[in-house]
Amino acid sequence: MSKRAEADRLRMVVETQSEIASSRLDLDEVMRRVVERAREITDASAAVVEMADGDELVYQAASGTATQFLGFRTDAAESLSGLCIDTGQLLRCDDATTDPRVDAEACLRVGAVSMICMPLQHPDGATVGVLKLYASQPEAFDAADEETLGLLSAVIAAHLTNATQFAAVRDDSRRDVLTGLGNKRAYDEALTREAGRSARYGSLLSLALFDVDGFRAVNERYGHPRGDAVLAEVGRILGSGRSGDQAFRVGGDEFALVLVETGLSQAELVAGRMVEAVAASVQIAGQATLSLGVAEARSLDPRALHAEADAALHRSKQARAEAHTRRTERRWGGNLSGS
User: Do the beta carbons of residue 102 and residue 96 sit within 8 Å?
Assistant: First the structure.
């Protein structure tokens, strides 16, 4: 791993501090920029911010090879990051294959062989997270990297004004205002997290994607307030299902349902009931319906799961369109040209 000169490191850290201090960035954007700069300065494979969430740590921001694991969760009690939070001290691991302090399985999954963990401290002194660098080879980091990480962690710590405000900012940035469901950002994180958990424990995971048919016509005929009411009702129905399922609004009239511990056939039943509930709703009946696509996870890759469900959704919409054409042709005696 190449090493930057001390003067170059300091200049890049100061530039980062100045850039963030002179802007009006929210905490999530601050974390994103810090992990990008930390990886750049140290030539690490990845940089992440892990935040405590109960007994787990969550990848809240990520860069480099860790980007695909955004939302990844680990057991705090079994990880070097958890120990970093408990002790409030910088910790370094030169070889994860021999260090008993690390979660070897989690390290293998994300490609972390050596790492540094720097605690993120709230102004009241509590340690609430970790800024971590890792590399795919052993003994990749030294004292200069530790100093760099310490300076950059202070940038994040300065934005942790209080735990309550942090939680509110994090929640607001992941909440769809109209429906109250999680937004696209929350969806991406949840799907990554659950795909990782499914692969780790061998549990079932399915995904249902929904699209509101006829939504444009509702807006054109009744106006946008009515269209918003339809979306809100769809959100209410999708969010009122089984306690373990997670519902999201991922686009204008697009929704997703992440179904944990659920195989394909059961997911199709659950999602089908949602479609029926929307069709029967007095708020929506006769105005719009839902198209549905369902897929079951077959790998760690959340993008593959989304792509499979999306393909199923498109097939569903195509089948609906073809059925509508056949009904129209029968109504007009098979002659749509007027000749």
Answer: yes
Residues 100 and 46 in one domain: yes
For the segment 162-177, the average pLDDT, to the nearest whole number, is 63
179 belongs to a structural domain: no
First-residue to last-residue Cα distance in the chain? 74
Q: Output the six-digit token pair for 263.
A: 């195989």
Inform me whether the pLDDT recorded for 334 exceeds 60: no
Residue 335 banded pLDDT, cuts 50, 70, 90: low
CATH number at residue 11: 3.30.450.40
Q: Radius of gyration (Cα) for the chain, nearest Å?
A: 24
pLDDT at 54: 79
Residues with active-site annotation? 253
Structural domain that includes position 202: 184-331
Q: How many helices (H) and strands (E) does the chain have?
A: 11, 10
Domain membership flag for residue 34: yes
Which pLDDT value is given to residue 135?
A: 94
pLDDT of residue 254: 95
Together in a domain, 26 and 81: yes
Burial of residue 253, with CB atoms counted within 10 A of its CB: 0-12 exposed, 13-18 middle, 19 or more buried: buried
Q: Are residues 196 and 322 both part of a single domain? A: yes
Which DSSP symbol is given to 255? E
Where b means 16+ CB within 10 Å and e means fewer, 173-192 reads ebebeebebbbebbbbbbbb
pTM comes to 0.54
